[in-house]
TrEMBL record:
It is an enzyme of class 1 (oxidoreductase). It holds the Pfam family Aldedh. This is methylmalonate-semialdehyde dehydrogenase (CoA acylating). GO terms for biological process: L-valine catabolic process; thymine catabolic process. Residues 33-494 form the Aldehyde dehydrogenase domain. InterPro entries: Ald_DH/histidinol_DH (IPR016161), Ald_DH_C (IPR016163), Ald_DH_CS_CYS (IPR016160), Ald_DH_N (IPR016162), Aldehyde_DH_dom (IPR015590), MeMal-semiAld_DH (IPR010061). Its EC number is 1.2.1.27. One of its GO terms (molecular function) is methylmalonate-semialdehyde dehydrogenase (acylating, NAD) activity. It comes from Amnibacterium setariae. Keywords: NAD, Oxidoreductase.
Amino acid sequence: MTTTSTSDERPAVLDPEEVGLVQHWIGGEPVPSASGRTGDVFDPALGVVTKRVGLADQADVDRAVAAASAAYPAWRDLSLARRQSILFRFRELLEAKKDELAEIITSEHGKVLSDALGEISRGQEVVEFATGLAHHLKGEFSEQVSTGVDVYSIRHPLGVVGIISPFNFPAMVPMWFFPIAIAAGNTVVLKPSEKDPSAANWLGALWKEAGLPDGVFNVLHGDKTAVDGLLMHPDVRSISFVGSTPIAQYIYETAAKHGKRVQALGGAKNHMLVLPDADLDLVADSAVNAGFGSAGERCMAISVVVAVEPVADALIERVRERIAGLRIGDGRRSCDMGPLVTRQHRDKVASYVDVALEDGAEVVVDGRDVAVDGDANGFWFGPTLIDRVPTTSRVYTEEIFGPVLSVVRVGSYEEGLALINSGAFGNGTAIFTNDGGAARRFQHEVEVGMIGINVPIPVPVATFSFGGWRQSLFGDTKAHGAEGVKFFTQQKAITSRWLDPSHGGVDLGFPRS
Ligand code: NAD
């Protein structure tokens, strides 16, 4: 057992010759970066660089888009039945090999193995949804809209689609998009986070094993240069982005300016409203699970508990007891919570404890003093509970994206609701109560995209669509479900008439009957 608070030691960097290089995956094979630029990939539980990732320049972007463009016509033209069988095979391989992927995720992101497996299952749900492509792509048909005339619609793929994903779900977030995009007949260039790039390559190799033609799924690694290359590339038809709000807004504006269809999911600050009649043990379990799971690095994490008095004291006591029972440490050692993704992010999250103290909040549990089962150089920061957080404090107004749970005390349901509706973000929220009428009123009155009723992380299943309101989503189309199918297809409406001997000759007006 190692006890560490704030380690100021710089992480040891292994000899570059000793660490692996994560290359692009283009045209069904690893491809070195033309730029020669690389980024460090850490194992956050060890605090060392374990790999380097090639960072794309424009030549790499062009190569990936060219591979996707070349693969598009044949993939678009492949029968639904053939596409479907490849998706089924991908699903079976993913199920059989998911432990390998989970280990990769834990080694680069830091989340515990069980949580990495959880993220894979949620992504797999979308693959399973996409296997129904023959149903999802069905068009509409109206017979005899005018005499001898039928109208029908077809859902047609877009072409080459770009996906840009964040570090916190290196497998699940790309899987929100690419199974549906591929099922619909598009070809994909995925630009994953440079912080944990290997999951994307693993998925590329899995597609190849499943029989996907080379070039249908490509992975381009990199930073802003790679992203901008995709946003401005004339052959990229759409952009699906998930990440922080400032970047989501930039992506939305830039991609739209370059004529692309865009969905850009941004940041979050999710509130849990606790009414006085709620079951406080359920609330405490839920707040701890949703606040500290994946070290709070989830866009659907609960970061603010809004306690309608008089519940706050009793609830805080229960949360504090549960925090004391958590094991923090290396995700490979059956711990409950792992490290943060980088030292820089860890330090930023830790800095909010000072902000809380300066702003007059009460730090009930301080994550800087955490005892861990892991290497002293890991990027550790423990579960943190802060009571009486002023709503003017940056602890309340900013997305912290770490294991920091704030408590705001309010006097009534109305006060809590007004607080939630006044926030900049509208990703997720939850109400805890045993009053069905109050819950129903909340689902109607709250201005947030995803709502839980006695469910702390209300991520919709793949048959529904995922996305928030306000600054949590730029664009009008959410991820997966029916909206995902709509995003990755464009409609053709066909008006058809097969002439028969009774056709009426020349008529310059609209058809009337
Ligand atoms: P990020 O915005 O820093 O990065 C996301 C992607 O954008 C990465 O691929 C990155 O390489 C790229 N990028 C970063 N800076 C860029 C720039 N200046 N120009 C162009 N591209 C750039 O986000 P992150 O730190 O990787 O992920 C955490 C954030 O993602 C949090 O804000 C979290 O709430 C959000 N998130 C939102 C959802 C959602 O569904 N709304 C889901 C997961 C994560």
